[in-house]
Amino acid sequence: MTGTADSDRDVTATPPAQRGGTAAGGTAGDDSPAVATPDPAAGAGATPGADGSPVRTVVHVVRHGEVHNPEGVLYGRMPGYHLSDQGVEMAEVVGRHLGGRGVVHVVSSPLERAQETALPIAAQHDVTVATDRRLIEAANVFEGKTFGVGDGAMSRPGNWKHLYNPFRPSWGEPYLDQVVRMRGALEAARDAARGHEAVCVSHQLPIWLLRSHVEGRRLWHDPRKRQCTLASLTSFTFLGDEIVSVGYTEPAIELVPVHLRAGGARGAGA
């Protein structure tokens, strides 16, 4: 998970938090990644290796590449939104980046942009792309509309009835529901690749919520502060059944527009 150049940089590699409240959907702490010393016994009692020790499995959760969206709408779960030419190139970069890894399982959200991102990754390892609906984008009442951070949408009176509760949130799929389904997909991928590596292709918000849950942060957050840029990898390392570290890499960062490198997404359409 360690990059060697700016185009393949390993931004973080931290063990998951060990503080209370994580399983219930995060704590009331700040937005900084939580760091704690991994438990040497993590994974003990889980599926053992040949010598009786817990096996190491890595699951890379990949955000899809750039999407062709000239109207700038929040496309969410809408069909018909495909990767742009730049997005296809991003997916190919990720495929090459993972080419030397022991990937034996590739699974994707059912949406076109995720499936298209998964294809060059799967091709590198001669596996087929499976589909897991639990990896899908978050549901959002603003789907099909122009709605994003800083575009004035929050000042429109017609939108206020959906904006009264940022903690749940009131405009879409509850954060905790996303965590539950993403954690289920993550663990299913782990089980399919025991002792090897797996790739799950998903979307920005569900990936960020999964990472926040694992690292013990609160789930409600400022969308501009998500560390989950286009074609990035959030990698979960397991010993047995236990997550012992979380890493983050941006192999296609040189292809990502500068204004999209630190959050910058149009809400749940990313």
Explain what the structure shows.
It is built from four helices and seven strands; from the N terminus they run E-E-H-E-H-E-H-E-H-E-E. With 270 residues, it is of the alpha/beta class. It has one domain (6-16, 42-269): 3-Layer(aba) Sandwich (Rossmann fold), CATH 3.40.50.1240. The protein starts with 8 loop residues before the first strand and ends in a 20-residue tail after the last strand. Residues 1-11, 18-45 and 263-268 have low confidence and may be disordered. The longest helix has 18 residues, at 175-192. A seven-stranded mixed β-sheet has the order 1-7-6-2-5-3-4, with helices on both faces. The protein has helices at residues 85-97, 112-125, 175-192, 204-214; strands at 9-14, 56-63, 103-108, 129-131, 197-202, 233-239, 242-250. The radius of gyration is 18 Å and the shape is globular. The protein is 21% helix and 17% strand.
| Beta-strand residue percentage | 15-25%
Task: Tell me the radius of gyration.
Answer: 18 Å
CATH topology, by name, is Rossmann fold
What number is the mean pLDDT?
80
**Assigned CATH superfamily:** Phosphoglycerate mutase-like
Low-confidence segments: 1-11, 18-45, 263-268
Protein name: Histidine phosphatase family protein
Biased composition (Basic and acidic residues): 1-11
InterPro entries: His_Pase_superF_clade-1, His_PPase_superfam, PGM_Phosphatase
Biased composition (Low complexity): 12-21, 33-52
Write the layout of secondary structure elements.
Layout: E1 9-14, E2 56-63, H1 85-97, E3 103-108, H2 112-125, E4 129-131, H3 175-192, E5 197-202, H4 204-214, E6 233-239, E7 242-250
Parallel strand pairs: 2-5, 3-4, 3-5
Antiparallel strand pairs: 1-7, 2-6, 6-7
Helix pairs in contact: 1-2, 3-4
